[in-house]
């Protein structure tokens, strides 16, 4: 478990107090439903609603003997309610209560994750707008390609975060499901109207078909959405780590007053938060795989999934909450170096305009293969001699047959690469 990283709000969802509270909500709602159809006397319902409470420590004490948490839970409530407690859990099975309560916990967790994603999206949008026209080199295979802007890079991650929001929203709908259908899902000992009432009151959808449990594909989908979200955060963190490399130094995560980077080297400022996020994303993916392993249960139910979920559900939701919180702070406090971007943009001495020269030659009537060979020859010469690309082009006699010196110079204009930035931002809703 990752208790030392637990954020209070998310962590409280998985505390025993909240779990038993949700279970009690389910039990009382079921009693209300049964009172409406004449199975529980109103007097007993009122007593249950007035006196039903529990003590986590007492439940644990009883469980040491029963080795069954739901029975211990019911016995503890019975101690406080008295004879009317006989109407609690009438016709229900343990998983009616456990799975429905779990759906409530997961729904709460999803809401917190959506809040975290919204905060990250806002931080990314702010940075995207601020650096909308801050030109930097784009890289493919880690090698200089053509110019982009830092704002465009942030807009990309903003758009990706929007998709993560939609994934979590969709997954929330999938896991917000209750069931009160009895020992093997047949409603043999409980009226289906009870399930309808309970789910409506608790704002859950009802399982159309169930066994003793709610099927686990929904939880697998939820954990998969969390894992994909974590992978998106990993990509963002990896980008910042790469840009923070000494040789590049175009952006770096915030370094706070009093912070230390190395026990041995006082000069170090390391991307420790981003590296932490990268590592945690691996855990989220592993937990998603465990959730998929939980889908296949024996017949109408076994409990092989239960022990797994007690680990992966708190851990994955708490981890992602933590990661979102940290990455929002990283983006909000991100240190950006436009001058270094400008410096790096010129490292290849104009080679980044090679495609534009290629396209201009094609416009002049050359076959693409021929045009490519002409431009590549000048590019390789410039690299070999460490010369400006323009200078190498001026020396290329084959190229001069089609383009003048002024025509070549006209192509070396950074604005050519930023002319569609506004359109891209509009597409992204920025």
List the helices and strands and how they pair.
Elements: H1 8-13, H2 16-36, H3 42-51, H4 56-66, H5 69-81, H6 94-130, E1 135-140, E2 143-149, H7 150-175, E3 177-178, H8 192-201, E4 205-206, H9 217-243, E5 251-252, H10 272-293, H11 304-332, E6 335-336, H12 338-345, H13 354-363, H14 368-385, H15 389-395, H16 397-400, H17 405-411, H18 421-427
Parallel strand pairs: 3-4
Antiparallel strand pairs: 1-2, 5-6
Helix pairs in contact: 2-3, 2-6, 2-8, 4-5, 6-7, 6-11, 7-9, 9-10, 9-11, 10-11, 13-14, 14-15
Provide key terms for this protein:
430 residues; disordered N terminus; mainly alpha; two-stranded antiparallel sheet; Ribonucleotide Reductase Protein R1, domain 1; 6 strands; 2 domains
Describe what you observe in this structure.
- The chain is mainly alpha-helical and 430 residues long.
- The chain folds into 2 domains: 92-253 and 263-342, Fumarase C, Chain A, domain 2 (Up-down Bundle), CATH 1.20.200.10; 351-411, Fumarase/aspartase (C-terminal domain) (Ribonucleotide Reductase Protein R1, domain 1, Orthogonal Bundle).
- It has 18 helices and 6 strands.
- The protein has helices spanning 8-13, 16-36, 42-51, 56-66, 69-81, 94-130, 150-175, 192-201, 217-243, 272-293, 304-332, 338-345, 354-363, 368-385, 389-395, 397-400, 405-411, 421-427, and strands spanning 135-140, 143-149, 177-178, 205-206, 251-252, 335-336.
- Strand 3, helix 8 and strand 4 (205-206) form a beta-alpha-beta unit.
- The two termini are 39 Å apart.
């Amino acid at each position: 478990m990752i208790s030392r990283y637990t954020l209070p709000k998310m962590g409280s969802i998985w505390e025993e107090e909240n779990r038993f509270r949700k279970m009690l909500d389910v039990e009382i709602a079921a009693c209300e439903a049964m009172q409406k159809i004449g199975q529980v006397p109103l007097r007993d319902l009122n007593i249950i609603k007035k006196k039903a409470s529990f003590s986590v420590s007492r439940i644990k004490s009883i469980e040491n003997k029963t080795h069954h948490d739901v029975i211990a839970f019911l016995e503890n409530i019975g101690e406080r309610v008295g004879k009317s407690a006989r109407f609690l859990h009438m016709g229900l099975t343990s998983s009616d209560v456990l799975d429905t309560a779990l759906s409530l916990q997961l729904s709460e967790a999803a809401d917190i994750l959506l809040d975290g994603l919204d905060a990250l999206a806002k931080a990314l949008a702010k940075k995207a707008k601020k650096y909308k026209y801050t030109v930097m080199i784009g890289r493919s295979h880690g090698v200089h390609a053509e110019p982009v802007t830092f704002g465009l890079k942030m807009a990309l991650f903003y758009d990706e975060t929007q998709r993560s929001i939609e994934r979590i929203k969709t997954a929330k709908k999938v896991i917000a499901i209750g069931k009160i259908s009895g020992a093997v899902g047949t409603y043999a000992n409980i009226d289906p109207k009870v399930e309808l009432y309970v789910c409506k009151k608790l704002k859950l959808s009802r399982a159309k078909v169930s066994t003793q449990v709610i099927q686990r594909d929904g939880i697998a989908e939820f954990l998969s959405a969390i894992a994909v979200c974590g992978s998106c955060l990993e990509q963002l963190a990896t980008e910042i780590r790469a840009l923070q490399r000494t040789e590049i130094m175009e952006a770096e995560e915030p370094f706070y007053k009093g912070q230390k980077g190395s026990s041995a080297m006082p000069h170090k400022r390391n991307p420790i938060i981003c590296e932490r996020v990268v590592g945690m994303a691996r855990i989220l993916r592993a937990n998603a795989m465990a959730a998929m392993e939980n889908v296949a249960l024996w017949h109408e139910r076994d409990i092989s999934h239960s022990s797994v979920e007690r680990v992966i559900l708190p851990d994955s939701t708490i981890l992602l909450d933590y990661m979102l919180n940290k990455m929002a702070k990283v983006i909000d406090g991100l240190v950006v170096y436009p001058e270094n971007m400008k410096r790096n943009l010129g490292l290849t001495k104009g080679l980044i305009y090679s495609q534009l020269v290629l396209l201009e030659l094609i416009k002049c009537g050359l076959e693409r293969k021929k045009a490519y060979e002409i431009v590549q020859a000048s590019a390789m010469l410039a690299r070999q001699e460490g010369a400006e690309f323009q200078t190498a082009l001026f020396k290329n006699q084959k190229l001069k047959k089609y383009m003048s010196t002024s025509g070549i110079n006209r192509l070396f204009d950074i604005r050519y690469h930023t002319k569609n930035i506004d359109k891209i931002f509009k597409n992204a809703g920025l």
